[in-house]
Amino acid sequence: MNATPPPDRLGFRTARREDLPSILALLADDPLGAERERLEDPVPDPYVRAFSAIEADPNQEVIVAERDGQVAGVLQLTFIASLTWQGSTRALIEGVRVAAALRGLRIGEALVGEAIERARRRGCRIVQLTTDRSRTDAHRFYERLGFKATHVGMKLHLDDRSGDFH
Question: pTM of the full predicted structure?
Answer without folding.
Answer: 0.88
